[in-house]
Each structure stands twice: as C-alpha cells, then as structure tokens.
Design a protein that fits this description.
CATH class of the largest domain in chain A: Alpha Beta
Distance between the termini of chain C: 47 Å
Strand content of chain A: 15-25%
Chains: A alpha/beta, B mainly alpha, C alpha/beta
CATH class of chain C: Alpha Beta
Helix content of chain A: 25-40%
Number of helices of chain A: 18
CATH topology of the largest domain in chain A: Pyruvate-ferredoxin Oxidoreductase, domain 3
Radius of gyration of chain A: 26 Å
Number of domains of chain C: 1
Structural class of chain C: alpha/beta
Radius of gyration of chain C: 19 Å
CATH architecture of chain C: 3-Layer(aba) Sandwich
Largest sheet of chain A: 8 strands, mixed
Strand order of the largest sheet of chain C: 2-1-3-4-6-5-8-7
Helix content of chain C: 25-40%
Structural class of chain A: alpha/beta
CATH topology of chain C: Rossmann fold
Shape of chain A: globular
Shape of chain C: globular
Number of helices of chain C: 9
Number of domains of chain A: 4
Oligomer: heterotrimer
C-alpha cells in the first residue's frame, strides 16, 4: 500500500492501449511512441503480454513527456481498451485513479470491477464500429487516433510514422490506417477535452527511438567489437539479432553457437586471435558461461558478456525484469578471479556502458560483464543522440616482442602486453592453468601469488574516472539514496520530485568495488536508503561486503516483476525522516 | 507408415460390433477434437470461434452418447487406435486441428467441419456399397444417411457465412517472447 | 515392459491434465500430445507410474499437459535428468520430450551419450526446424538457406540428421513420424515404449507461426517404402537415401539395454568400514 501518491510531472501523458487476439495493441503503442519522437517529445514504451506467442492479451504502456524520462509510469492518465479479455493478467501494471480516463468499446461488454473500483472516468467510444465504417479499418488504429488526440500529438507526425511502419503492407492498409486514426482522433475530441496538438522540443537536436538491447549492440560496435557469438535466450536475443545484421556491415561477424558454453568459448577464441568480442545472454546462460569466464580471467583474454537479467532463479520468469544476477556476476567465478562488472543506468546508458565495458575489458585484458535487464533491454525509449565517447577498446599489444617475451610478465600496472597470433617472436600458450610469467604451467606458490596479485592489481589500480556512478540530487544532503543499474531511473525521479535534500548515487561500476570513490560520495551522510530489485537484497549485502557505510542504512528491495516506482522510493525516504 | 495395412478399407469390417466400434470412435474423436479447438480459441482470445467449436463438440457428444446407449448390450471389440480400418490413418470425422489458426473465422471452422462430415459420409457410404453382410450393409447405410444429414446441416450454416477476405490472418503485432 | 491388466480400461483422456496448452492453434505439438496419450493408454500403466521429462522450448511444456509425473528441466539436459531418474527408478515408464533446438543443439552431447548408453527411455523430439519459443532462429535441423534475423541469408550449414546420429550412436529403436498422423505416431510411440533400450522418435511437428511453410509437410510426409530392419548396416544404407520425410521405423535392434552396475552380495556400511581397519 503506497500512501505517497504517484509523483506528478506536468507535461507527462501516460497511456495504455490494450487488446487481445491479434488486436494490434503493441503496434498502436509503437506508432504512438515514434510519432511522439517525430514531434519532439520524449517517451518510453514497455509492454505486458499474456503467455501466448500469438493472439494473446497485450497492453502497450506508453509514457510521453516534454522532458527526458527513463523509468516506467506509476499511474496512467488513459487506458484505451479494445476488449477486456484476460485483463486481470496485467491490470496491476496499469494503475488507474479518479484522475484517469478509461476509453472502452461498448461492444466489449461490462467494465471489469478492477477498472470501476479505480474511480476512473469511463468514456465509451465504439472503436470496432468506427473501424468497420472504414475499408480495411482496424480498431487499434482508431484507438491510436484517440490516444494521439489525448496526448496532443500532431497528426502529421502520426501519418508520417504510419506510412513508414506499414509500408510493407501496401497503400490500401496505410490509407485505412490514416483514416482510422483521424476517425479515432475526432471521436476522442467529441467525447472529452483534448489538448491542442503541439510539438515538444523542436530544438533541432537529433533524437533516437531505440531499445536497450539495440543500444547495447550499438555500444558494443562503438567500443570496437567485431566478433560476436550468439545463442538465443529471452530477453537478450535482440542484441544478437541486431549484431547479426550490423557486424557484417562493419567487416565483423556473428556466429550462431550450439549453446552458451560454445558461445563464450568462441568469443574467447576470437579475442585470443586479436578481435574484440562479445556475447549476450541472460541468467541461465551466464551460469553456464561461468567456468569459461574463469578461463578468460586466468588466461587474461578480454571478453564482454551482456547479461540481460530476468526473473530468477533457474528458468524463473523469462519475460520480466529483476536485478538478481548481481551475486553471480560479482562472486560467481570459482577461485579468486577479479573481473569487471558494470550496469547501465538507463536505455540510453546502454550505449555508453557497453562501449565502456569493451574499453575496460580490452584495456585490462579481463572479462567484463554488463548487467542490463529485461526492463531496459526491451523498453523502447526516445532519447537524445548519445554522445560519442572516446572509450574505444584499446589493447596493449606486444607488436615487436623481444627474445625474452613473457606474456604474463608482472608489470607495474598488472597489464602485460599481449602478443597477437601471427606476430613473430611472441608465441605463447594461453592457459587456465596457473602459470609463470612466460605462460608455462606452474604449481609453485610464488607464481600463483604473483599472478593472483597481477590480476588483482590490474583491475584495482585502474583509473575508472567519474563513470563508476552517476551522482545527483543535493551533494550536501545527509540522506542518500544508493542504487545501481536500471533502478537509477526511478531513484532519479524520486529525488527530483522532492524538496527534501537527498543525494543520489547510482552505481554503474560494481566490480571491482570503488571504496574510496563511494566513501567520498557518502561523506557527511547519516542515512542511506539502499534500493534494488532483488528478493534477498543482494545489493545491500554487496555493499556490506566491500564498503564501510556511514550512518544508518535501510534497504528497500523486492523481486520483480513489479519494479519500484519513484513514489515508493520517495515514501521510504519520507518515512525515515 | 501408419500401422494400417495399406489397401484395407471398410470392406474388411467383418462384424456389426466392429462397425459400431468404428462409429462410436468417430463421434468420440470428433467431440474430442472440437473440444480441443474450443479450448484453443478460448486461450487465444477468439470467443466467437470458441462458441462454435463448443457447440459442435456438444453435438458430437450427444451422437456419441446415443451410440453408447445403442450399443450398451453389445460386446464391442477393443481396438488400438491404429487398428481401426479407416480409409486414411485417422478417423474420417477427425477435424484437422493442424489447420486451426488463432484468427480463424466461422467460415474456416465450418469449412473444416464440412470436410470432416463429408469424409465420414464417404466412409460409411463406401462400406454400405461394399459390405456383403446384410446387417452391416444396413447399418452402414443408416450411418451414411445420418452423415448426409450432417453434411446438409453444415452446408446450410456455411452458406450463411461470408468468406473472409485475404487479410483475415493479418496481425500487426509481432509474436511475443515467452521463455 | 508388459502391460498389466487394469480393472478399468485407461483412455487417452486419462493421461491429459486440465492445464490448457498455450501452443499456437495449428501447432503440431497438439497432435503429439494426443499421440502420446493414446500410446500410454495402450501401454496401460496408470499415469502416476509414468514420468515425462523435458527441457526448454515450446514442446518442452508438454509434461504439465499430461497427468503423469513431470520434470520441466533446464535447456538441453532432459536426457541427463531422465537417465538419473531411470537408473534410480527403473520401475517407472520414463518418456523424454523436447524440441530440435533443445535436443540437438545444446542437448547434442547428451543425445549422443544417451543413445550410446542405450538406457530404457523413449525420447520424442518434436522437430519443427526452428527455435520457436525465442521467436524464430535456425536450429540444427533447419535448412541451410532459411533466412532469419540471427543468421541472415541462412546458416549455410548442413542440417543435423537425427536419425543418422541416433543409429550411429547406438540407439536401439530409431523412427520418424509426422505429427498429423496421430494414430501412426501413437503406434510408434507405443512400440518405442515397449521396446527395451533407448528408443528415439523424431516427430516432424510444424510450427505454424515461425515456419508457416511447414503446413506443406502433410503432403510431404509419407510411409517409407522399405521395411524396418534390425541390421544396423542395412539401416545405415537406407538412411543415406532418406529425404527427411520417410515415416516409420528405421531400425529396431536387439542391443542389451543399459544395466547399472550392481553387486549381488548385500553389505552394510559397517562392512565397508572394515576396509579401513589395519
């Protein structure tokens, strides 16, 4: 029970479009988002669907704003329901209140109790009947028209997007779609007050519509990845499908593997050969890859694995988000195997963080795990064009190895130049067995200690700069919200929405722990609210393991699929003051 | 390989109990298939089709019940599913559930039902024509006539339906990931 | 495994649970579920004495749709799970089910060894030549030129031939069927269950959503012209001219099924401890 109501953000408009049996709710939501982007607005689209592969009940959840946004909505201004079948499956994800409007088709039958109990105003618009009056008319396009009118999206933007999105279906379908949209808009305008159509920020800045998974793929190639191995798994497959199309255009390659054990080893092999390499998976796949990630650590071969986290443990809930792979990513390797773990903070940040991961992996010759999640991965967001970053992967290569070249020489930084196969004089055998500096297998204590130190020092001593976390809020506040990865979005909005002085630390780098940096960020703090999306509070335990936290701490944590919203975080803060 | 002897057909149904076993199996399988399709349509949010298939399942169920009563006193042979002497490998009235589609229309459903009834009619008709035993011949003819009645019924229902246009299977939404 | 006389005859419907499948209408797996139920009814053991073990994928959802004991395991490891179960509980009738991705890709290694081990299981692979659950990627049995987002233009790879692999690896019963032939598949499954050792059936089961072209399979599947054989060499020669759509039993062998190593003399733990005493 949330006593703190949803946070108001004027200028936001949140719409859900739902329907079942091939109604096309998701398509309508997609067009709405793209049109919003075209007219200079920001937005975020997520979806909730039933268990059927086709024909199931589906809802497109669209949050539009004049300002950038990165987390899902906590309340809905409008629900447009084409029918009510199996709506209980996701009605919890579409919170309505007496300020909300529900547009219902009278043909759909009685309004479900869950809807009437919300106090929302119900407006009837005969979506099916209106669609039937148009040749090839479809109720979802009528619904789209109504949605666009209620959100004040200019019709030229909608028409433009329909033309593109339905191009393959032919001009008759496009015309019908446009006619349906116009009809729906008119019907909405008749039924209730609609804002005038308006553009958002038309400042000329380039804006993108992209999903977190696509963004991760882009980040990978920006960072220099030119080889990927792929085994499909929900919700990561889209990264691999994007790379399957994109890599060959850049002179790179993707190979579909027979399983995750093959994927990770293919990636290690390609990297050993000199090519920055990456694969993407989810929890169950990462679990399979762990042994080989240990191999990459011990043999000092750079690789990047994107883990798009989903509900766990085991097969879990493949289509929903959670942050419960923190443990396996940080602690999961057998033996002591220091490596890098990073987590993007938003859909847009998937570009930066993945390219940064490539950079880190290459610079330190170490595996880097990117902890994205289903929410980020499959949400489509309107974002400002991500800044170009200088974080291209750059490996220290032994270009002209001397006679006494030692692949695993103990250097000051811990990073030893890598000879790429084909380089005269640089031959070595990469090995998971512990080894001497030359790479020969060794069971001697001195070699073990030296190499363990080397592998630890190189990651501990690296200068990560300011990217380890995003800091926000009031830098002098005595209360802090400390979170990581995708939860940063909700935490950000919570902190922005309150007059309470609160600091926000959203960690992007989890491993190796940045103890000095966090200590500096928390200087003067007396209360820390730790927030993460896991059942056992993995983040709190991680913090306790590595950091001395000042003052009192409380942990706000729970498993998916219902993700924390800004108001829940705000309420936890207010309850504490 | 179906397990049937290729070439065997209704002419090798040798006894009245065997014929009745076949007749009963036809109704039972038909009912099961229609019920299955009704469930599929419910799960995939096609309530109109669910209603149609439920109705057809009920009808077949009543036929099956009538046959059970009719044969209560008989000792029907217990045949393995692949020992039935169908013309193909399946009961003639078994609706091709592989032809189902989550967006199918009443026209599709009734077209499939019509094909099934026609196959059933052909099965009994062929048997009536080839049977030498007068009892079997008479019973088969009776069944054939009944099935002819069903065919006429479904033809009528189908005539009331409009054939769907070429876009009937158009779903703008992509398939959804589940696992 | 002999069928025991049951007081009341079990029907196919006794083996189906109330859980409604979420498979797409038109999916071949509905037929396979029917066939399995019919086969089990003929096999005659009550559902609680049957175990259905699966991996991950659309077809791997099948255990919950039966009334038997079931295990929906992790991707590709159903044969290993089932092997453990069968060794610990040889009294149960154990059926393993899954798809071509689960069984031949990530499960490929376990497939080889289950055939080699010749453990008394019946393995049914619903082959639709695609990864359906993850929305349409090529599987090991997909044609080399089938275009997809993950392998644009097709994999270019020679498809895996499950019957060849099964035969070469030592499976005792190797067969193929088509899902649309419900009674034919039922008979093969029944015979596979009754046959000792590792029985493998590839059931071509169309995916109407990601491989709508597979609706043609009902025209392509046909009974094999040649009779089944118990001579592996003959079976091997025959499979060389297989068009991928021949149905029936390819090979029915007489290799001894897997026998877990046991000793006839029974000892106690205390007896074993005596070994440590000097």
């Amino acid at each position: 029970m949330v006593s703190h109501g949803p946070i108001e953000r004027p200028g936001d408009h949140v719409i859900a479009i739902s329907g079942s049996g091939g109604a096309g709710a998701i398509t309508a939501g997609s067009i709405l988002l793209d049109a919003a982007a075209k007219s200079g607005r920001y937005g975020l689209l997520t979806r909730s669907v039933g268990p059927q592969i086709r024909g199931g009940e589906a809802a497109a959840l669209v949050r539009l704003s004049d300002r950038p946004l990165s987390c899902g909505a906590e309340k809905f201004d409008t629900l447009i329901a084409m029918d009510w079948r199996n709506i209980d499956r996701f009605i919890a994800e579409i919170p309505l209140s007496q300020d909300s409007t529900v547009i219902a088709d009278p043909k759909a039958g009685d309004i479900p109790d869950a809807i009437s109990q919300s106090g929302a105003t119900v407006v009837e618009i005969p979506l099916q009947a209106l669609a039937a009056e148009i040749d090839n008319g479809r109720p979802n396009m009528v619904a789209l028209g109504a949605a666009a009118a209620l959100a004040g999206i200019p019709s030229d933007a909608i028409i433009d997007v329909i033309g593109k999105k339905l191009e393959a279906k032919g001009s008759a379908v496009i015309e019908a779609g446009i006619a349906s949209v116009i009809t729906g808009g008119a019907a909405a305008a008749d039924a209730m007050p609609c804002p005038p159509a308006h553009d958002g920020t038309r400042d000329g800045a380039e804006r993108w519509v992209i999903s977190g998974n696509e963004a991760a793929g882009l980040g990978a190639v920006r960072g220099g990845v030119r080889f990927a191995a792929a085994y499909p798994i929900t919700p990561a497959t889209e990264i691999l499908e994007w790379l399957a199309a994109g890599l060959p255009k850049l002179g790179g390659t993707l190979v579909q593997a027979e399983d995750e054990l093959a994927s990770i080893n293919m990636v290690i092999g390609a990297s050993f050969g000199g090519t920055p390499s990456l694969t993407a998976t989810s929890g169950p796949g990462l679990a399979l890859m762990i042994e080989s990630l240990g191999l990459a650590t011990a043999s000092e071969v750079p690789v990047v694995v994107v883990d798009v986290m989903r509900g766990g443990p085991s097969t879990g809930i493949p289509t929903k988000s959670e942050q419960s792979d923190l443990n396996i990513a940080v602690y999961g390797f057998h033996g002591d195997a220091p490596h890098v773990v990073v987590a993007p903070l938003s859909v847009s940040d998937c570009v930066f963080t993945t390219s940064w991961a490539v950079h880190l992996a290459e610079a330190m010759q170490v595996p880097a795990i990117v902890l994205s999640d289903q929410f980020l991965g499959q949400a489509r967001a309107v974002i400002d064009r991500p800044a170009d970053v200088a974080f291209i992967g750059r490996r220290e290569i032994a270009a002209q190895p001397a006679n006494d070249y030692c692949r695993y020489a103990v250097t000051a930084s811990g990073v030893s130049p890598m000879a790429i196969p084909g380089t005269a004089g640089g031959r070595y055998t990469a090995d998971g067995l512990e080894h001497s500096p030359s790479g020969n297998p060794s069971s001697r204590g001195e070699d073990h200690a030296a190499q363990l130190d080397k592998r630890r020092n190189k990651v501990d001593g690296f200068d990560y700069g300011s990217h380890w976390a995003d800091l926000g809020g009031d830098a002098d506040a005595e209360t802090a919200v400390l979170t990581w990865g995708s939860t940063a979005a909700a935490a950000n909005e919570a902190v922005s929405a309150t007059d309470m002085p609160v600091r926000l630390i959203a960690m992007r780098l989890l491993s190796p722990p940045q103890t000095d940096q966090l200590a500096a960020a928390l200087a003067g703090v007396k209360r820390i609210l730790i927030v993460d999306q896991s059942h056992s509070g993995q983040f709190q335990r991680y913090l306790r393991a590595f950091y001395d936290l000042p003052g009192e701490t409380r942990s706000l944590h729970r498993a998916g699929p219902l993700l924390f919203g800004p108001s829940e975080i705000l309420q936890a803060l207010e309850e504490w003051s | 390989m179906s397990g049937n002897n290729p070439g065997s057909g209704p002419q090798s149904i040798d006894s009245l109990p065997e014929l009745m076993a076949h007749a009963l199996a036809i109704e039972v399988e038909a009912e099961a298939n229609y019920a299955l399709l009704a469930e599929q349509m419910e799960t995939h949010n096609n309530p109109d089709l669910a209603k149609i298939f439920r109705k057809l399942a009920d009808i077949e169920g009543r036929h099956a019940e009538a046959l059970r009563q009719q044969t209560a006193a008989m000792d029907l042979p217990r045949l393995k599913p692949w020992q039935f002497k169908w013309q193909g490998t399946d009961s003639p009235e078994a609706l091709d559930i592989g032809a189902a589609h989550y967006l199918m229309t009443p026209w599709h459903a009734l077209s499939l039902a019509l094909e099934a009834e026609q196959r059933a009619h052909r099965f009994f008709d062929a048997l009536a024509k080839s049977a030498t035993d007068p009892e079997i011949q008479a019973m088969a003819a009776e069944f054939a006539e009944e099935e002819a009645g069903h065919v006429a019924l479904v033809e009528d229902l189908l005539a009331k339906q409009t054939e769907p246009d070429e876009n009937w299977a158009d779903d703008f939404d992509p398939a959804q990931l589940q696992e | 495994m002999s069928t025991s006389a049951q007081p009341a005859q079990l029907k196919a419907s006794d083996y189906k649970s109330d859980t409604k499948p979420v498979w797409c209408p038109g999916c071949g797996d509905y037929h396979v579920l029917l066939s399995i139920a019919k086969a089990l009814a003929e096999h005659g053991r009550p559902p609680e004495q049957v175990a259905v073990v699966s991996g991950i994928g659309c077809s791997s959802r099948i255990p919950a749709y039966t009334n038997c004991y079931g295990f929906h395991g992790v991707h590709g490891r159903s044969l290993a799970l089932a092997t453990g179960l069968k060794v610990a509980r040889p009294d149960l009738t154990t059926i393993v089910a899954g798809g071509d991705g689960d069984g031949f890709s990530i499960g490929g290694n376990h497939f080889l060894h289950a055939c080699r081990r010749n453990i008394d299981l019946t393995y049914i692979v619903m082959d639709n030549r695609v990864y359906g659950m993850t929305k349409g990627q090529p599987s090991p049995t997909t044609e080399p030129d089938w275009d997809s987002a993950l392998s644009p233009g097709g994999t270019g790879l020679r498809p895996f031939h499950p019957l060849v692999i099964a035969l070469a690896s030592g499976a005792n019963f190797v067969a193929r069927s088509f899902s649309g032939d419900v009674n034919g598949s039922a008979r093969l499954i029944y015979e596979a269950i009754e046959h000792p050792g590792f029985s493998f059936i590839e059931i071509l089961s169309p995916c109407v959503t990601f491989r709508p072209d597979e609706r043609e399979w009902k025209k392509l599947a046909h009974p094999a012209v040649v009779e089944q054989t118990d001579d592996p060499a003959r079976a091997a020669r025959r499979i060389m001219t297989d068009d991928g759509f021949n149905t029936g039993v390819l090979y029915r062998g007489s290799r001894k099924p897997f026998q877990a190593h046991t000793e006839s003399v029974e000892a106690t733990v205390t007896d074993l401890e005596k070994d440590f005493v000097l």
